[in-house]
Amino acid sequence: MSADDGASDGSGWFAPRDASPDAVLVRRTMNEIAPVADKVTSYFYALLFVRHPELRPLFPAAMDTQRDRLFRALLTAAEHIDHPTVLVPYLKNLGQGHRKYGTRSEHYPAVGECLIGALSQYADAVWDERTEAAWIRAYTTISQVMIDAAAVDELRAPAWWHAEVVAHDLRTSDVAVVTVRPDQPYPFLAGQYTSVETPWWPRVWRHYSFASAPRPDGLLTFHVKAVPAGWVSHALVHRARPGDIIRLGPPTGSMTVDHTTSSGLLCLGGGTGIAPIKALIEDIAEHGRRRPVEVFYGARTDHDLYDIDTMLRLQRAHPWLAVRPVVEQQAQAQLPDALRGYGPWNEYDAYLSGPPGMIRSGVHAVLAAGIPAERIRHDAVEELMAPTS
Ligand SMILES: NC(=O)C1=CN([C@@H]2O[C@H](COP(=O)(O)OP(=O)(O)OC[C@H]3O[C@@H](n4cnc5c(N)ncnc54)[C@H](O)[C@@H]3O)[C@@H](O)[C@H]2O)C=CC1
């Protein structure tokens, strides 16, 4: 996702003066429920599971970790109902991604009915017939795009892949490099990410970027850091062993290389965020075009630079690649600050990968360094903010 998509904060997609009457009503509802968003979310799921118990098995046992992903995604979509160029690709992706949960077209009306039920309950001060009609139209559009995208995807790809862990390399006390072999061909692009479910936490899915470009042997590698209260990450780091079977969702994400240009790549990889940057470097190397690639690899301490040997080996192999470790403890500065003193960057595209705070301040830093928003790429910050990734 590029920086100017603005999906993370919802601002800037369209000015209110351009809004259709339905979008105005939808936004009014959203403003009304904003202060009680958590309550609306809980109420939505309560309605859904009481009225449609057959849908409960599609969700994880502990809903606190699932959080409000579906509900939030639907609200985000409704809010941007006037912006089909952004909305349609987002919804197609959402529809395809929901196949791995076992979602079918007949489930959508139930979700829509409970969405309207929850909104009307908590936005009662502004809820009227026109508002309800606007939400029904918005939801009908949203769900139809998702249903159609899932149907098209069904013809060309499985809903999920099984993958066997074939290597597990504990690099530090909390970071593992995990390599898996999918049971069927798994097409993806360097820079993308997928969702992973472990056998220990059924139906709890977390996102991980691919740490290599597609390989001839079909193996996939992920860098996983066990984060506090991170069920999936702890399982992958401390429990998974060769022979274990995990599930993978489809590849997604647009932090990929445009091979039609020859501009340089300025890459900021923080912590395990170095994983997709490594994949991008391999991708450029395979395409054989010499494009300058400058990598700033950030970590809190020396010890946290768990993949520095690989990065330095790549640097030795490729004269167009420069890797600069930035250790916060030594530099007394965070990763994006390290850009100062280097450049100019006006011939570069920027790629950012790491913790959400680093992405946010990194975007500011590269904008300030003269790289325009449309040449800045990173994954959606809210995808990275899943509570227990
Ligand atoms: N595609 C992506 O964007 C990927 C993102 N990630 C995310 O990267 C994170 C990695 O976590 P850790 O290894 O624990 O990283 P960390 O917390 O140890 O930080 C790594 C680097 O980011 C910098 N940093 C952290 N917070 C910052 C802030 N608010 N402003 C500026 N710089 C900041 C630090 O200076 C350090 O250099 C996870 O949140 C993971 O979800 C991981 C893989 C791929």
Automatic annotation (TrEMBL):
PROSITE patterns membership: FAD_FR (PS51384), GLOBIN (PS01033)
EC number in record: 1.14.12.17
Catalytic activity: 2 nitric oxide + NADH + 2 O2 = 2 nitrate + NAD(+) + H(+); 2 nitric oxide + NADPH + 2 O2 = 2 nitrate + NADP(+) + H(+)
All copies of domain Globin, residue ranges: 17-151
Membrane-spanning intervals of the chain: none
Ranges of residues in domain FAD-binding FR-type: 158-258
InterPro entries: Cbr1-like_FAD-bd_dom, FAD-bd_FR_type, Flavoprot_Pyr_Nucl_cyt_Rdtase, FNR_nucleotide-bd, Globin, Globin-like_sf, Globin/Proto, MRET
Entries under Gene3D superfamilies matching the protein: Globins, Nucleotide-binding domain of ferredoxin-NADP reductase (FNR) module, Translation factors
Enzyme class at the top of the EC tree: oxidoreductase
Cofactor requirements of the protein: heme b; FAD
Keywords annotated in UniProt: 2Fe-2S, Heme, Iron, Iron-sulfur, Metal-binding, NAD, NADP, Oxygen transport, Transport
The UniProt record lists the keyword Cytoplasm: no
The keyword Oxidoreductase is annotated on this UniProt entry: no
Family: Belongs to the globin family. In the C-terminal section; belongs to the flavoprotein pyridine nucleotide cytochrome reductase family.
Descriptive protein name: nitric oxide dioxygenase
